[in-house]
Amino acid sequence: MTTSYLVRLSVANHDGVTEQIDERLAEFETENQMFITARQAVHTARQAEDAAYRRYSGKDFASDDLKKAEQLEDNYMSVIHNSLNALLYLPETEPMRRKAQLAVQLFKDFNFSVSDGMEAEARKTINMVQQWQATTDYTLQELGVEQ
Predict the structure, then answer these.
(1) What is the pLDDT of residues 84-107, one digit of tens each?
(2) Which of 7, 32, 22 is nearest to 91 (CA)?
(3) Which residues of 115-141 are buried (b: 16+ CB within 10 A; e: fewer)?
(4) What number of helices (H) and strands (E) belong to the chain?
């Protein structure tokens, strides 16, 4: 993994996607405590990611800090996955529930695991997004994610 690849990956992940997800979750009104807890975890993870990004930007990613950055990314992806699973507890009539079912299935289909390396996780995430767009009528914008 080259340093330039890691810098591009870091910048790509920090270009607002995490902020958009956090904002959309904050706007969603529910009394489901599991979802509220997951939403708070996403917000905390995003704040930690922002702080890490400021610390790591311009730094040599070939250092020991790479492990810390990867752990942060693993935590963030775990929170996203858990948040999607929490949406499965919404009523059957809730449109967001069906979207969450499809997204959770993608995690299963691609055998996504935070124990994979950072580069493998990035490839799987890109493939999952492409699969999502190719097989559903839903767009990423409907989930609040802009490209």
Answers:
(1) 889 899 998 888 888 888 888 888
(2) 32
(3) ebebeebbebbeebeeebeeeeeeeee
(4) 6, 0
